[in-house]
Amino acid sequence: MRRKGLASMAVQTVASTTGTVDLGPASGLSCRECGEVFALGPIFACELCFGPLEVKYAYDLPSATATFPTGSALRKQIENGPASIWRYAPLLPVPADVATKPNLNPGWTKLVQADNLARELGVERGRLFVKDDSGNPTHSFKDRVVAQALEAARAFGFTTLSCSSTGNLAGAVGAAAARAGFRSCVFIPHDLEQGKIVMAAVYGGELVGIEGTYDDVNRFCSELIGDPAGEGWGFVNVNLRPYYGEGSKTLAYEICEQLGWQLPDQIVIPIASGSQLTKIDKGLQELIKLGLVEDKPYKIFGAQAEGCSPVSAAFKAGHDVVRPQKPDTIAKSLAIGNPADGPYVLDICRRTGGAVEDVTDEQIVDAIKLLARTEGIFTETAGGTTLGVAKKLIEAGAIDPSLTTVVVNTGDGLKTLDAVAPTTGMTAVISPNLDSFREAGLA
Amino acid sequence: MRRKGLASMAVQTVASTTGTVDLGPASGLSCRECGEVFALGPIFACELCFGPLEVKYAYDLPSATATFPTGSALRKQIENGPASIWRYAPLLPVPADVATKPNLNPGWTKLVQADNLARELGVERGRLFVKDDSGNPTHSFKDRVVAQALEAARAFGFTTLSCSSTGNLAGAVGAAAARAGFRSCVFIPHDLEQGKIVMAAVYGGELVGIEGTYDDVNRFCSELIGDPAGEGWGFVNVNLRPYYGEGSKTLAYEICEQLGWQLPDQIVIPIASGSQLTKIDKGLQELIKLGLVEDKPYKIFGAQAEGCSPVSAAFKAGHDVVRPQKPDTIAKSLAIGNPADGPYVLDICRRTGGAVEDVTDEQIVDAIKLLARTEGIFTETAGGTTLGVAKKLIEAGAIDPSLTTVVVNTGDGLKTLDAVAPTTGMTAVISPNLDSFREAGLA
């Protein structure tokens, strides 16, 4: 990856309709493919090579570390910050006073030491942790990324927050927009389950059903961005995607801080587009570079459902590119058949000595129940996928049970009740008397 | 209320099967009616007058304040504590090392400054707050009370955690028991909605359907406590009720600490049994007595659904006692027709200058949507009831819009989707093209 002209980026700014762009330490965007740099703005693809853009920071510059706080000074600043992702504002594309602006203040969710689960999986006591993002305001990690996109939308003078979605993202955008005083307009396939429609619609924004598949919804959104009708619209996962993605770094920051400013040895992360996994790796690298944690090897493992396992298939076949699949799995929030960040995920998992693995729908349901009955955490199908893969990799010896392992739980079981309903019910039905109780063998 | 023999209680202990009972500052139980005192144990009714028992503390004693930390010293101790209810361990019936035991670590939920909502309700900016307990591990305030009951169960050597429930409590008990390594056995009416059964059953404990009404379930549980079959069973809301109830005090503690160690002027609380409201008042009184907040008047308001409004009816009629009602409301978690703490609630609301009010099911749904579209918080029907009543009281002039008001949101909208589903949906369905978008008037 080349670096050119980044020094001049540090002082470069873009005028938006509301004035100068202040996104804190963010100094510009750069292409992940060709390294070309761009000023901060609502753009997401390189003008030269169409590669994805990502945010560059003042602290990326070799010379900047002289003035940017590092190590224990930065640690102290973070520890004194708010109990939300904004404690890491110095490392994010947000203004320094971000916590004072109306937003949902996501993050700083629990890192649960999962000793019961460890016992069942044969992991050493005190070595297994679940990062439980169901504790976020709308109960998924999407609140983290949407909060970043919202700040970019503010900076660029947008007044409408939008996205295409089939679930968690719709609610996260609707809620964040409501709180921040933005209009929201979310696009979904018209035939979504009623429960998901309610969860997205209740925040009072526009919720537009598109007659077509999720791919049709996406295509329509791209069209809208290029049209005057889409002016002033921030699509969190399209034209604000470079900022949006940075929200996932906060998972890495929190995990390390909650481990006492240490890197985990092994971390298991679900793969949808693959963005979250790549950004967690980016976050870990930043912590090392800034002297917040001691450098040491860590392994990153990616988790997919068998019914949508293009990255896992490529990993096992030794391929560098990902062949698209047609998804068919209960893990709908991971059902992206052509994941944009697939090649980067493969690179990270191979480079760190990790792996990508997949599990069946049945194993996903089993893992949901395993986590609930051992730790009292009810996760959605994506979390079941991640834990199911962790279990499989521990059994296969790919994950070392004597080292620290973190399993990332990205969402809440209340949103995917249908997945466990057929096999989860009452253990007995009795008459209201002690004889009936004894006959049922419950005494 | 008389006080007798409390000094001797401070050194009194009860041997359980696991040894001496250590419940921290808890020194005994006393009858709320006749003042008789008892040693700590799994009892809930006075042997003399059958009045309800409540926990007494070392810091209740006039002489104890000399050794018990107060004021700024206690504030500092709390502020350095964990980000959960256990920061208040010195004020709760739990051992000092409670945070090291496996539990769900509930509490320390967000106090949201609700300026958008304030604007809509005509409240002065910066004066309206929502205490959002949907952020708890199983997304309701029940995690607070169950966590207390669990510590009492540990202290008394119980191995099974149990309760009767129609919703939130079942999940809270199932999850807490799983995490703590307890067996759980929860009793529900057999004809509960499937979604609620799944939410309770997923944690893997026994979930027993009782052929009968919720009253039949309750009667059966009382029978089981008196039978050898119920030996070693802690029913969180029956034989552990005095401890269980103390969990609600933490709402009062957190609200005041989050307001900068200040009492709110006005606080609106839902009424089911009425326990939560009385314990919040108790918590506020303790903060005053221990010098954690400055003493000043505050008003407590109780909220009920019109379809189950026995306390509101008694308040309006000027009665001291509550006439039972047959519940018929969408606010099922508040549908207790004969609330045990009704008379105490009436006393507190009258004494503080507050009120008890009720709203219709339609107003409950409107309030759920109002909170979602203004602050991005999706509450359940109980929260809709509380906000609906707050709105009604502001409009009636009973709540002063220039003073600080806290509205307590006890649960999560994902658990009562049915309440809003009929009136919450897509705003438009369009074909995936710009012409269709424009025709729908969305541009």
Automatic annotation (TrEMBL), chains A, B:
<dbReference type="Pfam" id="PF00291">
    <property type="entry name" value="PALP"/>
</dbReference>
<protein>
    <recommendedName>
        <fullName>Threonine synthase</fullName>
        <ecNumber>4.2.3.1</ecNumber>
    </recommendedName>
</protein>
<feature type="domain" description="Tryptophan synthase beta chain-like PALP">
    <location>
        <begin position="106"/>
        <end position="411"/>
    </location>
</feature>
<dbReference type="GO" id="GO:0004795">
    <property type="term" value="F:threonine synthase activity"/>
</dbReference>
<dbReference type="InterPro" id="IPR036052">
    <property type="entry name" value="TrpB-like_PALP_sf"/>
</dbReference>
<dbReference type="InterPro" id="IPR050147">
    <property type="entry name" value="Ser/Thr_Dehydratase"/>
</dbReference>
<dbReference type="InterPro" id="IPR004450">
    <property type="entry name" value="Thr_synthase-like"/>
</dbReference>
<dbReference type="InterPro" id="IPR001926">
    <property type="entry name" value="TrpB-like_PALP"/>
</dbReference>
<keyword id="KW-0663">Pyridoxal phosphate</keyword>
<keyword id="KW-0456">Lyase</keyword>
<comment type="similarity">
    <text>Belongs to the threonine synthase family.</text>
</comment>
